[in-house]
Amino acid sequence: MASVRRNKALAMVAFASVASLGLAACGGTAEKPADKPSADKKTEPVTIEYLHRLPDGDGMVKVEEIVKRWNAEHPDVQVKATKFDGKAGEMFTKLEADVKAGTAPCLAQLGYGEVPTAFVKNMLEDVTVEAEKYKANFSNAYGQMSVGGAVVGLPQDTGPLVYYYDEAEFKALGIEVPKTLDELKAAAKKASEQGKYILAFEPDEAGYWLSAQSAALGEPWYTATDGKWKVNAVNRGSEVVASFWQEMIDNKSALVVGRWVPEYEAALKDKKLIGNIGPAWEAGFFLDSVVPEDKEGTWKVALLPDFGEGVKTGPDGGSGVAVMKGCANVAEAMEFNNWFNTQNNDLASQGLVIAAKGDVATPEKAKRQFGGQEVYTVLSQANDTLNADFGYIPGYSAVANQMNAKAAEVAEGKAKVIDIFKVAQDESVKVLKDLKLPVSE
Fold first, then answer.
1. Which of 224, 237, 339, 388 has the most C-beta neighbours closer than 10 Å?
2. Is the pLDDT confidence value at 198 over 90?
3. Mean pLDDT, all residues of the chain
4. Nearest residue to 157 (alpha-carbon basis) of 324, 347, 390, 384
5. Which CATH fold would you assign to the domain 160-314+390-440?
6. DSSP assigned state of 207
7. Whole-angstrom Cα distance, residue 366 to residue 343?
8. What is the pTM of this model?
């Protein structure tokens, strides 16, 4: 019941937020969502544009191939898919400009952390009526595409944290796969004493990576009280996570390196870094340069260690396909949205941890790289460990950026890990106020 009350409170805050910005509630209200059915008769095929940033790498079923199959089966609804090659933030900026210019695509991939911001900025359609037709096809990630009771699209993939490790290297060091935080500390210390690391502190991923760890045993960062946002980023979970990483950094049991720098990949290749906490979606690509094409890898994936209250994680990434403001053919767009995001095996080949229900075959590349392990079975189990009450606020990307900046100071020894969470607290309040949203302090 507490969860139900919290959701209702957040719904009130979300819609109050939209009203305070002088925006329409994305085409309708939570009680009576707007629906924009297309005309029954069309003389020309409907064309739906879809902008995505899926990797489309070697060995993957390309988005173009999937869409081509849809187009062949649906002559009256033709889809044009375009890959955006820039950064996620750049794509969001482009979409915001396109919505204002009236040239936005009908469908676009958005990270779950971006959805609340896009909603408040009036960039999305309320497609609750259409979405309800397909709700049963998706896991609890369906709720990630809802803001204040308005559903704005359908989920595509999820990002629970998991633990990756090189099984052969672990055996050589005489360490077991850690199942608790204390076991992780002990194993990390033993490995570092032998010149190896089973953990890396990633300053450029702090915003989502650390918040997802905090969610493993802490209460949500963002709730609603008396119609106002309440921020609680420095909670018990954050303190446990901060203490853990500070200890690992201080005793040099963790490698301190950015996730998206050449040094990280070099550490993997050199077998200096032989384990780490990471989002499930990394399973699709992070071993590409580590495991030769003609070899079988020795890496494995396991559930995140228990941080103190059972195995649980928050979301580190994941995205959905939203219907952008101004889409002229909502019903058709949502029909394709549902079809595309239930092509489980095709999307799994892209390295996605699928949000749709149903079995997913581990792609051959992943199976080979992970030594024959049914990787996607473990990742599916990880989906079930997601903290259902942990979500983000409008403007969270700015919070994450400031957390990353403070984490860079931690990496240089100029700040403590707990300072990252303090920045999250202060920046969250600032962002909400800057958006003229009600905040309880």
1. 237
2. yes
3. 89
4. 347
5. D-Maltodextrin-Binding Protein; domain 2 (3.40.190)
6. H
7. 18
8. 0.82
